[in-house]
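Subject: Pirin family protein

B.,
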Amino acid sequence: MSDAILQIFPLGFPWQTQDPFLFCVYHLDHYPKGNEQMGPDPLLLEGRSLGNDFTIKDGWRMYHGQTIPGFPYHPHRGFETITIVNKGFCDHSDSLGAAGRFGDGDVQWMTAGRGVQHSEMFPLLNTEKDNPLELFQIWLNLPKADKFVEPHFKMLWHEDIPIIQEENAQIKVIAGSYKGTQANDPAPNSWAAKTENEVVIWNIHVDANSKYTLPRTNSLVTRTLYFYEGSEIEIGDKKIHPDFGIALDPFQNVTITTGNVKAHFLLLQGKSIDEPIVKHGPFVMNTQQEIRDAMKEYGLTQFGGWPWPYPDNVHDKDKGRFALYPDGRLIEKE
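Prediction pasted inline below.
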């Protein structure tokens, strides 16, 4: 069985990925009670490098936020962001006029395409108790033919996402198909929108002291299993600790034996795009000239500008989960 393992590697920040994925980060922050402005008590901000606070202090980080944690407006071009919020909430605003508050299991799928600005802030909505946040952000590449598609914003609400309950495991099917259960449609121009690309995003939770078999695939794809929480697991004769990634042979079933704590995994899989990749910060293109063009265009147009009052825009404190689309459609959840 251990011959199914192609590589084992430590999880840094960001996590190592394989084509067609570009980037993956895991945020786990144990935020304190919020104030009326949806941020931490200002006294708790002392001693932090505000604007670039990526070091865990007191169990949490402010990232690029000054008063509210998160990522004020910034541009993207040439790929997609998939944001999975397991705990807590994220406030989205973008240059298309789209906005949303999502969390507690919701997923946002955004195609940056030819260019978009957005902000992702983490409002501390609870004033009487702590505000834990757990999320993944995944960057999925776009092929050259789709680098300049129109930007697209989509919400996958947690109550609509398939969750498969097996004897010893629970599998949340965010993208792809699991044993015949199909995920919701991704954004229309996504690499994941074509079933032949076998793009899979599964969040897998396996009970303690049990076995779970990850089913094989039938085509040549890259497949990476991220073990982000739990105690030591075994795959064949290999013992693997949490905070490690495992590149797997896609043609083999993989049986995982868990330790005395529930094990949590993220699986990313897909057919490689296999094109040149040139990255510069938030831009991912195929050539250096395309990167220069992106920087120049952003400098001139700001990808449509910023229609919101603040770079770190957040929504009303009493607002529930919602999605406002660029065409004015509003979907509100309880």
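DSSP finds one helix and 26 strands in the chain.

T.
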